Amino acid sequence: MKKRLLFAIFSFFMISAIAQEKEVNVGDVFTINSISKSDFSHIELPRKNIIIKRGGVPDYKTVFNNEVVVTEVSTNNDGEQIARLKRTDGRKFFSSFPTVTANVNRALEAEELTF
């Protein structure tokens, strides 16, 4: 009985240690993956009408496979990390937006972002 209890406690701590997300810091570089659906769930990209109003080109395919660097990290009320992302090549997203924001924890789980 003692062995089972110790095993249960040990496995609980091991699972909780594995389940902790990696902390993202300013300067980390990610790649935006191309996903099968046309919109991103956890990367906040502007809508087409807003892109057109700002004089940009609303082609979401230009976002795929871009390397981005984290310029700012904050946490929301749920404890999730929200990061501001900027392209490493210096260009703007859709020719008019210098940065976009993303929920890093969820975007990594959904494979919208990779290291």
Outline the structure in words.
This protein has 115 residues and is an alpha+beta fold. It has helices at 2-19, 48-53, 104-109, and strands at 29-32, 43-44, 67-75, 81-87, 99-103, 113-114. The N and C termini lie far apart (44 Å).
TL;DR of this structure?
This protein is an alpha+beta fold and 115 residues long. The protein has one domain (24-114). 26% of the residues lie in helices and 25% in strands.
Shape: elongated
Percentage of β-strand residues: 25-35%
Instruction: Give the biggest beta sheet.
Output: 6 strands, antiparallel
Overall pLDDT: 79
Q: State Rg.
A: 18 Å
Q: Unreliable segments (pLDDT under 50, ≥5 consecutive)?
A: 16-20
Number of helices: 3
Strand order of the largest sheet: 2-5-4-3-1-6
> How many distinct beta strands?
6
Share of helix among residues?
Answer: 25-40%
